[in-house]
Amino acid sequence: MIPRHLYIGISVLLLAVFAMSVYAWRMRRGVAATPVSAVDTRPVAPPAAGPTEQVALFVAYDDIGMLQARTARIPLPSVRQQRAEELLRALLALYLDKSSPHPLPPGSDVRGVYLIDPGLAVIDMNAAFADGHRSGVLSEELTVASFIQTLSANIPGVLKVKILVEGKERETLAGHADLSGFFDVVSVNQLAAQLQSTQ
Questions:
Q1: Which strands make up the sheet holding 110-116, listed edge to edge?
Q2: C or N: which end of the chain has fewer Cβ atoms within 10 Å?
Q3: Strand, helix or coil at 115?
Q4: 90 near 74, Cβ under 8 Å?
């Protein structure tokens, strides 16, 4: 014959197992019902050191197919190369915002800008920027013109620009804008002027 206290102990344990199962089921159901918030996948760049300066950012607007100059005050370091990187990061921040007039893919970032004398700037973008970029002639041209115009307007002496992705050449941005060669700043400035005056 089984002692009475053993029956009571087993009954209490079974009741505890049942209660824990109900609790775990309710917790799992609550987690499944909780909406998942969007995760910000943008890389965190170290804050720029230096006094704030007024700069001209040439912002692309998809709805009207134009570039428009927008002034901004951003902290800029004294080193020319770092200044170029911070300029493009400020422009990217506008494009990564929810209310962006020219949205770029989440996680887009500038890996580096290399200023090579005489007059050559090499912009190295990350893979998220190119792999997730919307395909389309105007969209891609606006992105390229926006970057080059912003860089050349704020960094004197830039005559040619090369765009790399993850440190490597890429034929096109997203199927249309040719990235295989060098961009002549004067030609891009003329295109930017057309994109600013066209409506």
A1: 110-116, 120-125, 160-165, 183-184
A2: N
A3: strand
A4: yes
What tokens appear for 191 in the block? 């295109």
Q: Which two tokens stand for residue 171?
A: 């034929």
The amino acid at residue 43 is P
d(CA 132, CA 72): 27
Given a contact cutoff of 8 angstroms between Cβ atoms, the answer to whether 75 and 50 are in contact is: yes
What proportion of the chain, given as a percentage, has pLDDT over 90?
A: 20
CA 195 remoteness from chain centre: 23
Phi, psi of 27 (to 5 degrees): -65, -45
Considering Cα of 134, then 137, then 138, then 143, what sign does the dihedral take? positive
Q: Which residue has the tokens 């209490």?
A: 12
Residue 140 and residue 163 in contact, taking contact as beta carbons nearer than 8 Å:
no
Nearest Cα neighbor of 49 from 77, 29, 68, 26 is: 77
Those residues of the chain that have pLDDT short of 50 are: 198-199
CA distance 57 to 149: 8
Q: Which residues pair with 74 in a beta bridge?
A: 53
What is the per-residue pLDDT for 36?
A: 58
Q: Which residues face 66 on adjacent strands?
A: 61
What does the pLDDT look like over 149-160, one tens digit per residue?
999 999 989 899
* 153/189 Cα distance (integer angstroms): 9
Which of 81, 78, 112, 110 has the alpha carbon at shortest distance from 93?
110
- CA distances in angstroms from 15 to 19, 29, 129, listed in the order given: 6, 21, 56
Residue from 47, 54, 130 nearest 89 by CA:
47
